[in-house]
Amino acid sequence: MAEILGLGVTHSPLLLGSDARMAGITERVLQSPGLPNRMRDPANWPLGMQAEWAEHLAGRAAPAHRSRALDGFRRARAALDAFDPDFVVIFGDDQYENFREDGVAPFCVFALDEVESRPYHRSGAANAWGEPADTVVRTKGHPAGGRYLAGALVEQGFDMTWAYRMRHEHGLPHAFINAMLLLDYDRRGLPWPVVPFHVNCYGSSTISKKGAFAHIEGTGSEIPDPPGPTAARCFGVGAATARALASSPWRVALIASSSWSHSFLTGKNHYLWPDLDSDRIRLEELRDGRLSGWKDFSAAQLEDAGQQELLNWVCLAGAMDALGRKPGFVDMAETYIYAAPKVFAVFNPPMAKTAE
Ligand SMILES: [Fe+2]
To answer: 190, 180 in Cβ contact below 8 A?
Structure first.
């Protein structure tokens, strides 16, 4: 009988690496040519950021941040284990991986047989598990579930792009493979087939910032790309996904994969720290289950807060709102210096086996 579990997690690449490299993005921004010189001096940063930086230099902040995030992953993983879905659907963004100059879809459902990924190929640096840089991860897809979902969304008025294979040369893009690696942090294996659900979160910076980092290096284009889907459309496609899966034969875990405000997307903070104030407001809305307002975010509002990737969570919010669900577990590991706060949520189905 159909049932749906909702989860929200991060896919932060920084958690895949070592504690010693966790401030790598901040260090990169500090070297960037566009940063005003006065912002290279920690004395001009927010007080909370200065304190966290001091803790980082003392070697304490990174392990504490990782520990808080891993608590969130273990809560999400426990819910997955208890629910034991037939497959998982992951809402995730693409940062110049599968979608490039030859075509950018607003949404895309992947009905894959199997996909091979090389998750450490991009960074090449040591990872948190000491696994070889050329490690290949094989992931089973759920082609019947992917085809069904794409078709059911078309029937509900969403002209859905679908695909049977990845174009990305390293397999699953970061939003999918990183979330899976982190949900399996204790390396017990992740036995469930996956239907990746691409969301073009980056909109105007998809190509112009090539993965949303070219502007830091001073190599991006000033010409914005056409926008991605609106928050209203993401909320709607999430609701339609929930309706489709609720009348399917399957038990499905719906996972939003992303952090919220990103330092390197927050222009008003010189791309140096995230918009924590905005994230805290969103967190209270999530905690209270006040999700219906998330369809009203404008692209300008999300870009101002560096919250482009929040659109993955807006899809999940639409699904949970359609099901009348509130989260049982919510947590946010705040940070100024590790690129983005990491948010976690578990929306168990009624009468779930697991206690939250
Ligand atoms: Fe991302």
So the answer is: yes
Domain boundaries, given as residue ranges, for the chain: 3-347
Report how far ligand 1's centroid is from the alpha carbon of 13 (Å). 9
- Note the pLDDT tens digit of each residue in 116-147: 999 998 776 789 999 999 999 999 999 999 99
H/E element holding 137? strand 137-140
Cα 247 to averaged position of ligand 1 atoms, centre (Å): 30
pTM of full prediction above 0.70:
yes
φ, ψ for residue 174, nearest 5 deg: -55, -35
What does the block give as tokens for 109? 């459902």
Q: How far is the CA of 200 from the centre of ligand 1 (A)?
A: 10
Share of the chain above pLDDT 90, in %: 92
**What is the full DSSP assignment across 182-201?**
HHTTT-S---S-EEEEEE--
Q: How far is the CA of 348 from the centre of ligand 1 (A)?
A: 25
Residues with CB under 5 A from ligand 1 (ion): 93, 175
CATH number for the region 3-347 comes to 3.40.830.10
Q: How far is the CA of 258 from the centre of ligand 1 (A)?
A: 6
How far does the centroid of ligand 1 lie from the alpha carbon of residue 185, in Å?
19
The C-alpha atoms of residue 281 and residue 277 are separated, in whole angstroms, by 7
Write down the H helix ranges in the chain: 13-16, 24-30, 47-57, 61-83, 143-155, 174-183, 214-217, 231-246, 276-288, 299-304, 310-323
| Distance in angstroms (rounded) separating the CA atoms of residues 341 and 337 | 9
Q: How far is the CA of 324 from the centre of ligand 1 (A)?
A: 28
